Amino acid sequence: MVIKNYIEKNRYYDSVFLMKIARRLAETDGVDNASIGMGTPLNKDTISDLGLWTNEAESTGPNDLIIAVRAETEADCEKAKEKFEELISEKSDTSSSFRSISGAKAAVPEANMAVISVAGEYAAKEAKRALLNGMNVFMFSDNVSIEDEVELKKLALSKGLFMMGPGCGLSFINGTAIGLCSMVHRGNIGLAGASGSGIQEVMVLVHRNGFGISHAIGTGGRDMSDEVGGITMAMSIKALEKDENTKVIALISKPPAESALLKIIDVIKKCSKPVVVQFINGNNKLLEENGIMYSESFDETAVKVMELSSGKKVTLKKVFNNDFDVKAEVKKYAPSQKYFRAILCGGSLADETQLLWSKSGRELYSNVAIKPEFMLENPFESYKHTVIDIGDETFTKGRAHVAIDPTARVNRFIKEARDPETAVIYLDFLLGYALHPDPASVMSEVITGEKKRAQEEGRHLTVIATICGSDMDPQDFEKQAQILKDAGVIIADTNKEIAEIALDLIEETEREKLC
Amino acid sequence: MIYEIDYVCDRANSIKWQSGTICGIYRHCFNIVTDGGELITVFNNKQKFSTRAYICDCGTDFCGIELENGDKAVKKNDGIFVGNIAFIANSPKIISVHREKLKKSGDVPRNIIKFYCFLKKIGKKSPVITEKIYTQKLLRGLMKMQKNETEGFESLIGLGVGLTPSCDDIISGIAAWNYLLYGYTGFNEKLTEFLKLKGDVKTTTVSKNLLIDVAEGYINSSLYELINSICGDGNKLKALTYELAEYGSTSGIETCYGILFGYSMANGEELIKWL
User: Which residues touch B174 (CB under 8 Å, ≥6 apart)?
Assistant: First the structure.
């Protein structure tokens, strides 16, 4: 046996890391035993007790690292030392994951966009550094003050850079999906807006119908407020107008503040390309007065931009056939079952569902109610017909978004499924990069279990769903659909279609009870 | 890159230095050992920091910025400079980390048992407790320490893997307990004396500095709050135990064991029962 002590002057590593490395070295072929420690007198004694001591380490001090190896040959000792260097470099290798903007920019000088997803209190400073380094910013982080947002957006504007966010859910830039975003074909339709799931819904409808997206620029939820004044939205329209690959533009946003709206109307009127505007639950009177095209649902927005792109009439393609017998489904309900419950990951899908129900004159309560009279008193308890935005911070504080970590939705689904008054439950499934790798499997197990439980209790649960994703997404669209169908879920193509199915089921339930 | 130093601990602020060497870069902090052998630690948040802390506004991980072990750090009036990175100090706030003696107001024996149960539940182990060769040395050292503190320090200080050897962290827990319950007397006085005399050859520079701090009553908030809870109502004991146990790689868990040993030593109880 040969014993070697290698000395590393002034090298510091934590204890668990060193223990792990010592174990790995001891497992190397030809190596009998290994120990690593700082060169304190007591550690030297311990190395000696283990029979690993040589005079090579005599001169070491407490701030030096000793790597002691006993192996069959000197070459085996050398191999162990090489292994040590390899394992150390694995720890310090940051080439594939940069943890600071300066580190990333230094390693990849041509990088021109920083994606920021750190705690809100740090996000603004990091964004400022990125902008000062000449990088566009996509900021997923929220909890950034409105003052910081305004400062950052003004700085970005002065430098001709984009400040997407705070609270920006997704963007699709030059064919790259950023944030919680679906992968779609490229084409000549440009999108901009402050509505993550709304933009995604339009993107996937465009994709499914054979068209494509040039860019989709997320602005962040407060961009169209009085304070921010639509800085990023205006920049987006101008950039899409200049982009030679963009032929038509759609803007999708929650209702804007009037001052921001007036600014944007001015930009739209000067834009040389056709622009379709969808302000979810917004007042479209001003748009109408200014001769601006608008739409009232994601389906309508998608159809309008595709028609403008092709110059032809477009009818949305059917992917899912849901010609099921509504009457037969309703007949399976127990007398107590009468309510619709939606548990949605997409906030904009929850908003649109409320709008569509509102148009039918029905009450729909929510934790994110678009009408104050329908605000749930307790977001954890549904009331009559209810739609829950389960991605809202109330349910996900301290956790990843529910489209990444579905725990909150699983728990809520079980609660709703066991409510004897629940008849229909609607779930949306968002696909794309950075989202849960297999959302259908997570829910299907629970759906099957709860459907069975309901049956044993003399009830019948109807579960309906949409899949907001494309066949280019990593989750495998078809597989996700099949998993849901196998669990007895009725799938529709769009949020609008699902709202109509739900209304049909509830109206039929009411008719049945009257008879 | 420029970062701003927002806070400085009074202990770190009192150290006079001009240059030093980077030794140990971690996610939340990096160490500078000054040419005079003192420790300074730069942290990136105000949630958890040691008594030698400069706290800056770097929002990310120190492992990702351009710092290397062995780099020279220079201190000037307006901040600390390492290569192309500047940590500027524009009137930072001074944080006091010197502690006063605690008053016992709760059921300490009961809280100690609760604390031990939480520790067991965490399940995280120190190498000196899992590796037989170290455990035997630890037990022998503790027994010596019960009879004669200095002999115990001889047998334990500098023993264990890592930047702060495991037994040093255990002694740190004992010293914190003694200071907060009994003040700067006996055990702690001897510990300071020992470290000032032999610390440079017995243990790492970082560990020597941190041990002297604790012995003299400069105790970080996680450790202070935990002992305060044990001596008081014990209400937040679970959360505080988990918080300290998460400190460093195994340093936190070893310091927790130190608290148990400190309690038992002061009460003439057997130490082996905690292992």
Answer: B187, B258, B259, B261, B262, B265
